[in-house]
Amino acid sequence: MRIFSYEKLNVWQKARELSVKIYKSTKDFSSEEKFGLTSQMRRAAVSISSNIAEGTGRHSFKDKARFTEIAYSSALELLNQLILSKDLEFLSYEI
User: Fold this and answer.
1) Cα distance between residue 25 and residue 44, in whole Å
2) pLDDT band at 94 (very low <50, low <70, confident <90, very high)
3) Model pTM?
4) Which of 12, 17, 34, 48 is most buried, judging by how many CB atoms fall within 10 Å of its CB?
């Protein structure tokens, strides 16, 4: 099986691990949050590693930087959602 360059990146590996943790952590959220925070958090988490991967396929530095910026923005979005989840007592621990 071919290994892509982004798979060697520590930041991509950590982002992938974060996605798994988010999926596991949100599985016990209330069912009324299925289309709310659960969905938003999962999409934001997946977006981080996805944009890192997509950025490595771009040829210009400007394009690569833009995808890194999008990944960072998704990380901030996820952080906000984690804070809200803790405030709402959906999470009682640090991820």
Assistant:
1) 14
2) low
3) 0.90
4) 48
